[in-house]
Amino acid sequence: MIAEKETVLVTGGVGYIGSHTTVALQEAGYRVLILDNLCNSDVAVLKAIAKITGEEPCFIEGDIRDRGLLDKIFSNYRIKAVMHFAGLKAVGESAEQPLAYYDNNVNGSLQLLQAMQEADVRTIVFSSSATVYGDPQSLPLTENHPRSATNPYGNTKLMVEEILENLYASEAGWRVALLRYFNPIGAHRSGQIGEAPQGTPNNLLPYVAQVATGRRAQVQVFGADYDTPDGTGVRDYIHVLDLAQGHVAALAYCKQSDGELLTVNLGTGKGYSVLEIIAAFEQASGKHIPYQVVARRPGDIAECWADTEQAYRLLGWRASRTLPEMCEDAWRWEQNRSGQASGG
Ligand code: NAD
Ligand code: UDP
Fold this sequence. Notes:
The chain is of the alpha/beta class. The protein has a domain at 7-185 and 237-268 and 305-319: 3-Layer(aba) Sandwich (Rossmann fold). 41% of the residues lie in helices and 17% in strands. The chain has helices at residues 16-27, 45-53, 67-76, 91-96, 98-119, 152-170, 204-212, 240-255, 274-285, 309-315, 323-341; strands at 7-11, 31-36, 58-61, 79-84, 123-129, 175-181, 183-185, 219-222, 234-235, 237-239, 260-266, 272-273, 291-294. A seven-stranded parallel sheet has the order 3-2-1-4-5-6-11, sandwiched between helices. Strands 7-10 form a two-stranded parallel ribbon. A two-stranded parallel sheet has the order 8-13. α1 links the parallel β1 and β2. α1 crosses α8 and α3 (67-76) packs parallel to α5 (98-119). The longest helix has 22 residues, at 98-119. The radius of gyration is 19 Å and the shape is globular. The mean pLDDT is 96. The structure holds nicotinamide-adenine-dinucleotide and uridine-5'-diphosphate. Nicotinamide-adenine-dinucleotide (NAD) binds at residues 11-12, 14-18, 36-41, 63-65, 85-89, 104, 108, 127, 129, 181, 183-184.
């Protein structure tokens, strides 16, 4: 007898990290049901996933704040676990529209958790962020580093972490994974899926990639006077597929226990500066990438990278892909994408 595949509900599964995790889940033998309102993604991603895995995920277009819809989903499908990616993620925008961020990220998570509780689905993997560490007091960042938030987006992540911790403490049987992402970059090797920001990218990598294709003139380097080896900001960049596989490992870990509150960093443990990233992308693309140093971006920290030991000890998971691979894969995707955009 063939065992029935377990269904995982992936909120925000059409987006950047959710789509790569959907591929990893399908490859690990799960059936994926995506709920996404497409506010920051394109439904064509579903066909691209099918090209990679041979299986198009089930898709429901809708909003995590729609409690009636959530109840229908939980009663119509036998969902074993939820991976919760849906939310808004632009730090600058969160300061301009805090209510939209609290509504999507906090209220949306509450609606989802209430529907899960009602349906007796008690396994959730949540997309948190290294932003919950605030300005690092020590490096590498361990999971017990104090938490703080410097902007509304970071505050939504911190609040949902606390809500999940309270929920876990209140009732037996919850299996909760708080995954704190460092800086996900790169794309699937196939070039079929990747990061597709709308408008001007906020993040470094997609901006650099668009300078490499000629779509933008030059990278603005936000400050070269930090206390770092070359003066520019240092971050822990992690390949999005390593991140995706970290989710599969976290789900496996949760499933083997009756109750679990797992908090882990998903990073590589190594930091690279903005100038190192630009140089690595030049190498991967063979393109010259002009840049100009401008003022610091308000709210940025100098440097941060993860302590990865807890993830390895508990999950047996470590990131394995190198910075050149991250840049090569991002470059392949960017070329495909810009070819598609220009009709080529
Ligand atoms: P993304 O914008 O590409 O994906 C998010 C998806 O959620 C999109 O497809 C969007 O349409 C959908 N969505 C948003 N609000 C929704 C709602 N109310 N109902 C239904 N769908 C909704 O972003 P991403 O980079 O894939 O990030 C995924 C998650 O990881 C987010 O929660 C983000 O905060 C978190 N995260 C991202 C990063 C990063 O650097 N990309 C770092 C740390 C944490
Ligand atoms: N950065 C930059 N120019 C850009 C975007 C980002 O110099 O156009 C720098 C930023 O100051 C930080 C690093 O690149 O040091 C990573 O920024 P990103 O926004 O990608 O991620 P963050 O760690 O801030 O979430």
